[in-house]
Amino acid sequence: MFRLLMYLVPLALTIFAFIDCLNTPEDEARHLPKIAWVFIILLFWIVGPIAWLAAGKVRTVPAGGRTPSEWHRNHRPQYVAPDDNPEFLKSLAEENKRDEALLKDWEADLRRREEELRRKERGEDTQGS
């Protein structure tokens, strides 16, 4: 059991530190660029995560007063449900108009072809009698 923990604890710590490093904004990584921290965490999988947790990330509120969660909250794209998005509804209405126009053209073409077939049948019947 302890042999298994010897491998699982550093692995879990490495995964945690790696994800924490990736989710940290660039300006909150201390001493080194964030990409350097990623390589340190992955290459030195026992010492790297401990170094990241101890010295790599600003753990207090930054000077600007914003926390990482506020940064992520402010930089998320705002999604609107399709039925609440007026641009999407407008595009559906335009697409519907185009489809109706195509359907009317198709029906007119179908009526014209049916009429031509009727004329041919009447013309052939009168010639044959």
TrEMBL record:
The keyword Transmembrane helix applies. One of its GO terms (cellular component) is plasma membrane. Keywords: Cell membrane, Coiled coil, Membrane, Transmembrane, Transmembrane helix. Signal peptide: none annotated. It is found in: Cell membrane. Its main location: membrane. It is a multi-pass membrane protein. Residues 12-56 form the Cardiolipin synthase N-terminal domain. Residues 89-123 form a coiled coil. The chain crosses the membrane at residues 35-55. Residues 64-84 are annotated as: Disordered. This is Cardiolipin synthase N-terminal domain-containing protein. The lineage of its organism: Bacteria, Bacillati, Actinomycetota, Actinomycetes, Kitasatosporales.
